[in-house]
Each structure stands twice: as structure tokens, then as C-alpha cells.
Fold this sequence. Notes:
Layout: H1 3-15, H2 18-30, E1 34-37, E2 42-43, E3 49-55, E4 57-68, E5 75-87, E6 91-92, E7 100-106, E8 111-117, H3 125-149, H4 154-169, E9 171-173, E10 176-178, H5 185-192, H6 196-208, E11 213-214, E12 220-223, H7 224-228
Antiparallel strand pairs: 1-8, 2-7, 3-6, 3-8, 4-5, 4-7, 9-10, 10-12, 11-12
Helix pairs in contact: 3-4, 4-5, 4-6, 5-6
Amino acid sequence: MYSASSSVSSSTEMSRPFLTWQRIIDWAQEHYRCRTFNKDEKIPARSGLLYLVQRGSVRLVGSAQVSTSSSRMPRIAQEEAFLGFVGAGQPFEIVAQSPFTLQSYAHVDQTAVVWMYWHDLDNWPHFRREVLDAFRYQHQRKLLWLSTLGQRRTIDRLLGFLTLLIEEYGEPIDNGYALPWTLTHAQIGSAIGSTRVTVTRLMGKLRQKGLIRTLDDGLLSIPADSALKH
């Protein structure tokens, strides 16, 4: 476990010359194509542009309008679901298709984002290949995510979801791996199609079984022996 994500990040650092990345940052600053965001600040992203996370982490959230019936009149409500993270050095794009919308937020303070048009990548052909490879990898991870969400039992969806997240973004700690950012039970519930109350109850069960741990700073972790089983 973790070899996939570790190899992706390490290979990105090794295959992308520092000079190339620095040129992209310099170009973005020259053209006012970069900005730093505070935690939970919405990133004003729009479709048709390519975004690169220079520093920090971006949280992707999907929204959809749903009809709610009432005794008097139907109402339109907005439902949101947590769709995952985009870490430093990784690209993302916003795709809008009615009635669904995709939004992005800075998940931690000092999250820096660069944006450009796709044709701007013509300036860096090698980097273009890296971006396309990164999107292919993200697509493969989403297929695993969908497979996890297909589990019938909520506790299985929960454990699978946490495992996938920590597999991709986890950092090594004593006897395990931990997600480097906090995630609320409400956000987890929206991701696996459950409620905050249910997630809180099931997290307690997973902790009792030793399958997950919550560190003092609220970060979620999975023991190394549990990680190897997935």
C-alpha cells in the first residue's frame, strides 16, 4: 500500500525539472495567474481552464439541485457531496453539467493555485505529458472510489473510503499512516452517502476494532498492519 501514491509524487518531483516548475510559477506570477487562499475559502474556478495546486490542498465538492416534496409546495434544495482532494503538484479542472456543479475550496491555509488555458501548456510539452498522466491516475482512483461506494454496508463504505484517502495522501507515522488534513464527519458522510451521526457511530466501531485511529490533533490514521491488508 501507499507505493502507488508515493511513486506518483516522487516520480513527479524527479521527472519534472525544478527549472521547469519554477518557470511555470514565474510565468503565472507574470500573467497574474496565481493566488493564495485561506482555509475553506472558495476558489473561483470555472470550466475550460486548467488548475495546478502549487502548495496546500484543494477540496472538491459536487453540488446538485434536488426537489423536496412538502405538504404545501415542492422546493428545490442544494445537496453537496465531498468528492476528494487535490494535493500539491497535482492538476484539476472544473466540469459543469446541469443540474450538477463542481466547486473547489482551499482545505488548508496558504493553499496556492495556478491556472492557465490548455493551450498554454504548449510552452512546456514535457509538463503537458505529466498533466495528462496525472489526470489518468486520478481517473483510476475514482474507479476504485466508485467500487468502494458500491458496498452495501455503510461501515464497509466508510472503511474503504478512509483507506483510499489515506492510501493516496497519507504520511508515515509510528506504526501506520495518517491523513495530513482533518476531515469532518459531515464531509465523510456526504462522500459515502450517509449522515454525520451514522459516521460518528461507525467510526467508534472501527476504532474499537483497531482498524482506524484518531490522533491527538484530530487526524485520521490507519495502522500499518491494517493498511497492508488493503
